Amino acid sequence: MTVPQTPTAPPTHPAPPTTAPATAPTAAPATTPTTAVAPAATTAQARRTELAAFLKACRARVTPQDVGLPPGPRRRTPGLRREEVAQLAGVGVTWYTWLEQGRPINASEQVMTAVARALLLDTVEHGHLLRLAGLQVALEPLLCPTVDPAMRVILDGLTPMPAAICNSRYDVLASNPAYDALFPGVIRGSAPDGRRNSMWCAFTVPDCCNPFLNREQEFPRMVGVLRASYGRHVGEPLWEAYIRDLSRASPRFRELWDRQRVAPATTVLKVFRHAGVGEIRVNASYLTMPGAPELYMVVYTPRTARDREHLEWVTAHPRAAVTDHEHD
């Protein structure tokens, strides 16, 4: 989140569309009962529900002092009140309330940007908010798990630096020998359907056997990156099943997922452990692939010469145990 600037007066923004009411309605919008819900309607409702949860979580993270408002009397819940967000964004209180309730109302990009500004959202969070509001409708489907043979040559050439090609759901579509040696659990297909999925492996392996050492820093970031991608796929059956199953399998994942944080995929420090060499520190860099917006290549570059020696040893001994014990 960006460092807030304290304004001298609440910012003003364009008024919301004419469909946004300024006062409370006399009755709830009428609904037409149906015997079946069309897939498009189901997806739209799922997106509105996700938007409502995201807005509430973001509102709870902003204090009145962050946006130049007086603290006021004692608050029952953390963060801003709905009327304060509406005031800062220049929209009607009832309209914003309906937005947080997941009602089917119209919202322009201009108005949603005003809401994002009021909630002090950063660039990634702003984009996530717009997608959840249905303002970026050209959603890319998850690409089929196929990789250009030339990319496989590049992967192998990066050895002993571990590298893999993944999709936005953390499925590992291709990898080099160094990656396979460092993450044998991923290569064996740790997900229930046999998919090679690094997120599933990271969150379902017991801590004593988990190759990640800096889990407290990395796990929230990983889930944030996943949630940012999820914003483009809300309501899609494969994505919904993936999130549901992983939430059931890992209370830690479920807790982080419910925080509603989103994050960009940037170069970060990852610290691993291997029974054969001990600690390995690398920079994880994420490279986009032209023509394949849902795919990326992740490359682990060693931080020091000693880390490179450790990676070389691990790659040369692919059958060496990653941990010093096993579970039944």
TrEMBL record:
The organism's place on the tree of life at top rank: Bacteria
Residues covered by the MmyB-like transcription regulator ligand binding domain: 147-308
Pro residues compositional bias, start-end: 7-19
Pfam families: HTH_31, MLTR_LBD
Entries under InterPro entries matching the protein: Cro/C1-type_HTH, Lambda_DNA-bd_dom_sf, MLTR_LBD
Biased composition (Low complexity): 20-43
Segments of this protein annotated with the region Disordered: 1-43
Protein name (Swiss-Prot/TrEMBL): Helix-turn-helix transcriptional regulator
Source organism of this protein record: Kitasatospora nipponensis
